Fold this protein.
Amino acid sequence: MAARKEKVGIIGSGLIGRSFAMLFAAAEYEVWLYDIEKSQLSSAVNEIKAQLKELQGLQLLRGSLTAEQQFNNINTTDDIEQCVKNAVYVHECVPERIELKTAVYAKVDKLLNDTCILASSASALLPSKLAANIQHKNRFIVVHPTNPPFYAPLVELIPSPWADSDVVPTTKSIMEKLGQVPVILKKEIDGFVLNRIQYAIMKESWRLIKDGIIDVEGLDKVMSAGLGRRYAFMGPIETAYLNADGMYSYSERYATMIEGVMATFREPDKFDGPVLDQIQSEMEQLVPMDTLQARRNWRDKRLAALAQLQKRMDNEDEKK
Ligand SMILES: NC(=O)c1ccc[n+]([C@@H]2O[C@H](COP(=O)([O-])OP(=O)(O)OC[C@H]3O[C@@H](n4cnc5c(N)ncnc54)[C@H](O)[C@@H]3O)[C@@H](O)[C@H]2O)c1
């Protein structure tokens, strides 16, 4: 007899919730997707079905199940109890508003098993604030995904300060089973790590455009054809390490130059006004607003192809 599938509850079936539903379904969990908006649930189901079919056609499905088998692992409900009762893991994916998220936790708190992990996709809300008033604060963790989680596997794990010692290792192993790449933050900090780095890049990009140093198209190329090429498979620290003969050599060769440039950085600009108008208008020339969904699909295909390439190269590395 086949082993009973472990149950996972996903609360919120928007961009992030539906992507996690696909990931858990591919890893052979029994998935229950819940939303307060019935129309969101039906659009999630239609989109998931279409995406799985397309991924199967492109041979880019995750796991070993067919698209149909994966789809059959996903159930939807408008009853929160049916979603979370007896789940081993519950993943909250509702909008980034503390009063909304904490209202959801107040409802699920009394329905959860004591061993169930309660995860949040929060992008910036701190676990110490999110979990402060819940009974299961010892089972709470933020699992911050990268959008879209199906194609960009990094997840940041930030446990609540009250988390039991098994919460981080169990969540890490669940994420690895999905094929995600977890990193663990030792302490909470505003913006976590991914967004702090992303916003540092955004801050300087804004300034360079504002000061008329480069246009939007050129700025984005610096990342897509330059820095991003390496960053797709190694971080800034290893990049520096290899760009010289280790970190001491890097510091010896470049520290004075880097510190000199860094001294010209300045306080962040406001993200509005004429620079916002200029960036929106230049972007509209490159990607018209009525082609956003097509452009997202273009992005997702490339992310999926990149994931395949990386998997193939990882397999080759393992064989060596
Ligand atoms: N979209 C991103 O790029 C991204 C990336 C990383 C993390 N996140 C985080 O993930 C979370 C979800 O974001 P999203 O982009 O999927 O939002 P979204 O707006 O696409 O989806 C939110 C869903 O939650 C539902 N919802 C609202 N209140 C609810 C409730 N009380 N109970 C159940 N469902 C409810 C909505 O109907 C909607 O379907 C946020 O915390 C966000 O910050 C988003």
